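Hello support,

Our group uses your service weekly, and this is the first time we've seen a run hang past the timeout. The protein is Crinkler effector protein N-terminal domain-containing protein. I'm not sure whether the cause is the sequence or the server load. Input pasted verbatim:
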Amino acid sequence: MTNKLLTLLCVVETESTPFPVEINSSASIGILKNEIKKAKSIALAGVDANMLTLWSVSIPLAPLKERKPIVLNEWGSATELDPADDISDEFKAQPPKKTISIIVQRPVQAPVPARTPSPPSLEQGIEAFNTQLERIKDEFFQPGTAVSNFTRSFVQGELSLPEADCCVKGLPKAWLRSSSFSHQSSRPALYLLHPTRPHQTTDSTTPPSVTALDSIKKFQNNDMMTFFGVSGCGKTRAVVEMLAQTWGFYMNGSQADRGSKDITTMFESALEMPERYLSSDKVRNGLNIQAMTCCLLISRLMVLQHCLSLGHHDIFACDRWMLFQVCPGAFDTAVPDVFDMVFRAILRAYHDRTPSLSILKILLQDRFRQAQDHISSFSSDSLPNKLLVVLDEAQTLSDHGRGYFVSRADSGDPRSVLSPIIRGLRSISASEQDYCVVTCGTGIGPDELEVLLSSGGIGSSWEQVNRRIVDFPGWETVEQVATYINNLGDTMSEDDKAVLYELIPEKAVQELFFRLRGRFRPIISTIEEIIANGSISYWREAIERRVQSMTSYPEHFPVRGNLCSDIKRMLDKVSKDPAKFKDAVDIMHVLRQTVVFRASLGLPWSLQGEEPIMVESAFARLRVTADRAAMGRRVDTVIDEPFVFRAAYNFIQREDEGFYHFFREQYRDLQDPSPEGKIFERHTPLDLIYAFHNKRLKHELFSIPKPAVHLKPPKVPIPTFEPVTFPKHLFTHRATIIGWEGYEWRARHNNTLTMYDFMEAHYRNGSRKGDYEVPPFYYPGLSPSGPDIVFVLRINKELYPVFVQTKLLKGIYPGDVEDARLNVHESRIKDHLPNLAAYCPGGKYLSLLYVHPTIKKTPRMGWDGDSIWDSEPVTGANDRHGFAEVDEPLKQLLMIIDGSNMGNFVPRGVVDLLDSVKGTKRVSDQSDLSDRAEQKPHTG
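Update from on-call engineer: The timeout came from a worker crash unrelated to the input. Re-ran successfully.
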């Protein structure tokens, strides 16, 4: 047997509680000693691992209530293990479940905690405070009390989450600890729906909860993990899924959020007793906070032990225990928060008697072992998984008490109250293999990093990232949103499913994605609001309300869920403690970059590496991407959500007036355009995705612009644009933009790429040129005149080139339109692409005028007749249309998106943005006025 992972159940002589050690069979017995020492670091304190003696045994694990201390002499069949041997020499296969395989014997001269009597004062202190704890337990849980009646009903399954009072039945509801959330709310809480089924947006991505549980299982000696991501990215849903599958505790550091308020109670108690918790003695402050944290864990274990003692293990499983903790006040308004009630009672007893931290740790770990043994007695596994200790909204605690605590007794490094709380949570067991503390929030500070970098022996290797879950993919395609709605419908009756699809039709799904894509929560919250309202016409208003609530600049701060408010909060936080953020990026500088980048290029903005300050400000997301140079993966800070751009623009407009006016002038009249091209067309690509990708072309796109009347004959003859006919399949099949699916914006275009290269790549080479991926959009050079943007549409089996001209003017006249139409006509396109005909099926190509404000035009008539349609097409191989000869005249099929119909094809925010910044066109874009129609020509 070679390199097989074994789980060996071990026990220290004179102790009764076994512990597991995972180790490869190819390792030596000497290495096994080291792993045992790590797992029992407190029990074996002062003992060198090499001085331990290991004995191989096979002792069936006795029932929980019958277990006694293991004494080596009572097992004559024990075999001493040679440190030089391999584990496989003794264990050829995995030992049976619930069987002790190793007895660990200390050297004769070593201290034996289990057999050495405690000092009288310590022993008496343990007994005295344990008596207090038992009295508190009896007060709350003796038969007939309100808490006892409530917990019994809950454990027996008689109480369930209340249903939302809305038109779709069977959806759970829960509320936060904020007075602004009514218990009578009709809004469902979809994050609590089927928590045992991890939410997965695509088949190719692993849910964060699955990644985290796999990592916890893989690194048994690691006792801490952190979920770090932007507000609303899905962190809470992930830990809810974890706790629905694994026993643990859920705590929340926010004053008005989910779960019990016991963490808030703890910090409020510290503020009320500054001489004990916020004194000049920073080391003592930390030890006292650790003691309070131990009291909090004891209170949670007290409630859990009582629930477990009631039986009904087929009903009261870890998922039900999770719901109890996440929504403690949702089941019985007479008992709104059992956990805080019990904790307050224990905290009063602690302040009255002030037992030492050592006493509290002993009592805590004893109760933890009892709970662990109880769970293992009805678990199908030989031992239960690690118990999770989740601290949600941890970043709120990192803002408190900074300067009153230090990282260690011998360190002067200042820390927040979060540091001693984490140390207190890690006191729940003497073995790191028994538990895992999971902090969860929008910030990651030195309190967490210190533990992450020091525990588990991973150090700073890439495997460290497996203990920092940062990749929350969110919504990346409209199909993911549609799948979510479908999955939601599959859990309902047929009648409720029909109502759901009426409330959220296909158009609503598309609008949800294109306006709220990105992080998890905005779309889910909007779906909840639509369901709660119950009107089939409400979805547009709900989406608009969500966007406005997130992006508008509020009259008063702070406003929950508003991005401008979050940015303001973070800026104030930096100004109050500049030393803490001296190495962070300048938030305002990033905001300015983002606004310009979005306006000029229309593409996501990315910062290489992690920028926690941008994540905590709710402005950016962290994404893990492939990178060979970074051991396979790299974490970047990405700003790519449409509502974030809008919020940034609104914030800049109000908070940075000088830059705002500068930006508007640059946007309106850029005298020296960059080598990559113009401004407005760089805003266009994501709008084109919205308008054309996976959409059917609409008749209203193909209107006819009003002709210009020239005061004198133009130097260049104007070609005849009409009449034209259309192939029917343009409107009967969905169009897709070639090269967009799966494309990552690593580069916008290659300076050496020609239009011929671009066409050949997308028509014949799978969107590649050599070893490089070719972008979905191409930007021709400024000279000779021609289109601003080029892309390719696949419609049915055909590929059509699309040539785009953009114009952003105060007013657009027929002469402007004629000039724009010429730039996307074959007469000028052939200056860039002489063999244009080779890419035009049936001799047809598409042109698009994307302009603002509005063109004078008339709708094209005859869609219901025969004259507007092509005759039966000539087809070639694979039933595709034949291509025109190089010298054969081609036909331009002109599309127009302007101020009159823009709202039907692009997000409303685009129209708002263009309305606010439209101005005069750049001089560099203007043709000689003598060569074109007058700005205000006579039209006869």
